[in-house]
Design goal:
Helix content: 40-55%
Strand content: 15-25%
Order of helices and strands: HEHEHEHEHEHEHEHEHHEHHEH
CATH class of the largest domain: Alpha Beta
Structural class: alpha/beta
Radius of gyration: 18 Å
Shape: globular
Oligomer: single chain
């Protein structure tokens, strides 16, 4: 289990220097349309254009680049239903390591194909719970587990995104961030709040993938029996003690939106901003619509568009 004192601004800054040759510093752009819609200055952090299509590659490289060379031949193992899988597979092939990715059978075909395309061995499991249970078998064979969010190096890599936001927009007042397991939120919160404590962070989940909202309401970690949201890349079965504590400490709230709201926001982003996202990213706009009373004309609001790996068949289905 990761301790809070393992996540520091210094660690995030070191991560950026470590991964600099391997990732893309994505743009932060202003949106006139969304600024009018929300009654504030609104900006989009475009991780949809990150290598492998999501922010996850930042943490994957930071983890793999710190592994001892003795583990090179045994490789790495990871559990993911999407973006983390592709990120670990891509980082592994770039660094000459073997990768095994455990993916639930419900994973969309485009994620499976892309992960295999990056050279990973993909093992399909009945569900995400079985996938996590099988990790120990690979660890016993010498594989290193690259956890999607309960790892200080993975979290620090994700936090590099926060450094970029503050550098590009020093006047930022609000950041809206998606929560799966909470690693992105934890890294970004550390990067931002360590330098500008008055920044407000707003968490977002979708119904059926709301492990953080349920944990905050219950006062302890809640394990979801299944992920029923169409936003499958938010599909962590549970958050961790660290990410729950960071949410309590740093988030103004967690807004849980419906899949229908996220789909409507996806269409707005595509039609008006010409950016195609997955639901795990468009849900930030859906949440910002609900949060509008909290913003003022002089607010500077950043929506983190964390990923864009949407299957064409899913897009067509959303518009059916």
């Amino acid at each position: 289990m990761v301790a809070a004192d393992e996540i520091t601004l210094t660690g995030i800054q070191a991560a950026r220097e470590r991964i600099r040759p391997y990732f893309r510093r994505t743009e932060l752009i202003a949106s006139h349309t969304l600024s009018q819609r929300l009654g504030a200055h609104v900006y989009l952090k475009l991780e949809v254009f990150q290598k492998t299509g999501s922010f996850k590659v930042r943490g994957a490289f930071n983890k793999l680049l710190t592994l001892p060379t003795g583990t090179r031949h045994n490789g790495v193992v990871a559990v993911s239903g999407g973006n983390h899988a592709q990120a670990v597979a891509y980082a592994a092939v770039k660094l000459g390591r073997r990768s095994v990715i455990l993916m639930p059978e419900s994973t969309p075909g485009n994620y499976v194909d892309a992960t295999r395309g990056y050279g990973a061995e993909v093992i399909l499991t009945r569900d995400v719970h079985e996938a996590f249970a099988r990790v120990a078998d690979y660890e016993s064979q010498g594989f290193v587990n690259v956890h999607p969010f309960d790892d200080p190096l993975v979290i620090a890599g994700a936090g590099t995104l926060g450094l970029e936001i503050l550098e590009d927009l020093p006047q930022v007042t609000d950041v809206v961030v998606s929560i799966g397991g909470g690693g992105l939120m934890t890294g970004v919160a550390t990067a931002l709040k360590s330098q500008k404590p008055q920044i407000r962070l707003w968490g977002v989940e979708t119904e059926g993938a709301d492990a953080m909202a349920q944990a905050l309401a219950a006062g302890h970690i809640v394990r979801l029996p299944a992920i029923t949201s169409a936003a499958r890349t938010l599909g962590a079965p549970a958050v961790t003690e660290l990410t729950l504590a960071m949410a309590r400490k740093h988030l103004e709230s967690v807004t849980v939106v419906s899949d229908a709201e996220a789909i409507a926001a996806l269409k707005i982003l595509l039609e008006r901003a010409k950016i195609l996202t997955e639901l795990a990213a468009s849900c930030t706009l859906a949440a910002a619509d609900r949060l509008r009373p909290n913003f003022a004309p002089d607010s500077h609001v950043v929506l983190i568009l964390c990923g864009g790996n949407l299957a064409v068949e899913d897009l067509c289905r959303y518009n059916a």
